[in-house]
Each structure stands twice: as C-alpha cells, then as structure tokens.
Design brief:
Blueprint (H helix, E strand, L loop, with lengths): L31 E6 L7 H9 L1 E4 L4 E9 L4 E10 L2 E6 L5 H13 E2 L4 E2 L8 E8 L10 E16 L12 E7 L2 E6 L12 E2 L2 E2 L7
Antiparallel strand pairs: 1-8, 2-5, 3-4, 5-10, 6-7, 8-9, 9-10, 9-11, 12-13
C-alpha cells in the first residue's frame, strides 16, 4: 500500500540511472563556530574562547587562480596559475566586560606596538590560526559533530573596524574583522582531506579521458 511518505523520493531530480532518491540534508548557515588559536595576548585562552562565543557571522574561504593563456596555432589554451586566498570577514559583538575589544586590541598590538611605534620582528611573532567549523546542531548532552572544517594558517588582522555608535538604534556594538591568511585546508568531519579521484590518475599527472569512437 502506497503512503504519502513514498512520494518524497520523487521530490528531487531523477539521475541518469533512473532511480529517484530523496533530497540530501543541507548544511545550515547558522550551525557553525569559529575557533581562534594564538589570537591576542600570549596565554590569553579566555579571550580567544570569548571571541568564539561572540561571533555574529563568518565568511568561508574564497580562492582564485591566475589565468595563464597559451597561444596555439588556431586557438588558445588556458591553464591555472598561482592561486590567491581572498581576505575573509568575521563580525563579532563587543561586550560590556571589554573582553572582545581587549583581545582584538592585543592582537593588533602584537602586529604593531602603536605606542612605541615598533613592529614585530617576523610573522611568527603575531600570526594566529583560525578554524571555521560547520556543525550538526548538537548541544548539551549531545556534543556537536563537525561536518566540515576549514583550517586557516598564517592569519593576521588586515583590518579591524570598530563600527559606529548611534543614539537612534538598539543594536549591539560590533567589530568587523578582516583576516588575511597564507593557506587554508578543507577537511570533512573525520579530518580527511579532499583527494583526487583514482580514475585517470597516472604517473606524471592526470591523463585525458578519451571518448569511445
């Protein structure tokens, strides 16, 4: 006997093999957390944890490849050149206890001592790491499970915007952070890297797949 639930498999696009399947559960934008590692003053783990709790929104990494053009006989071929990770924006709520502005100020001070006008000797003196994790919604006795993890290495604050104050609004005070980073690695919930498919991989690189004639 057919039931209403049997129709759910018909609510998605039918693949080429003719077998209908139900829609996959999407990752939800509001189920996430951002972890800051070695951010701000040395040993100030409380400031980093507080920063995690005060995040409003965060962008995921964006990468762009330079384009290399090879001019051939009657046409052109395009290759991927060097890549660039675009700066990433994270907005946080400022708090009445001052922990957020203190942590952000400490990170900026690590990058440049504004009072003494003295800069750090090397990047390792001020750079931090960031993790952006998409979660499954667990909480309380059911710890949240990580569905996707982005690890950003070599981070520093490219910009810290303390935003405006306004008598005409009831909104919370926020700080907009722009983070520049050297590299980003994407893994799944088990910490596994995205890998190339085995088909077509040969010694010396990917081999072209020929269509049967």
């Amino acid at each position: 006997m057919a039931t209403a639930s049997d129709t759910l498999r018909n609510l998605s696009v039918q693949p080429e093999d003719g077998s209908n399947q139900g829609l996959l559960m999407p990752k939800l934008q509001y189920r996430f957390r951002v972890n800051f590692i070695d951010f701000g003053a040395v040993g100030d783990d409380q400031g980093a944890l507080t920063l995690t709790r005060q995040v409003i929104d965060a962008a995921r990494p964006q990468v762009q490849f330079d384009e290399i053009t090879l001019n051939a006989y009657n046409s052109r071929v395009y290759l991927a050149g060097k890549h660039t990770w675009q700066p990433l924006s994270i907005n946080v709520r400022d708090d009445a206890s001052g922990l957020i502005s203190k942590a952000v100020g400490a990170q900026l001070q690590k990058q440049l001592d504004f009072f003494e006008q003295q800069s750090a000797a090397s990047g390792q003196d001020y750079k931090f790491s960031t993790e952006i994790q998409i979660l499954d919604g667990g909480n309380g006795i059911n710890a949240p499970q990580v569905l996707e993890n982005w690890s950003l290495a070599g981070c520093f604050l490219q910009q810290a915007n303390y935003q405006t104050l306004n008598y005409g609004t009831s909104e919370a005070v926020t700080i907009a952070l722009t983070i520049r980073y050297d590299n980003a690695i994407q893994t799944n919930g088990s910490g596994e890297l995205a890998t190339l498919p085995s088909a077509g991989v040969r010694q010396g690189g990917l081999q072209p797949q020929r269509n049967p004639s």
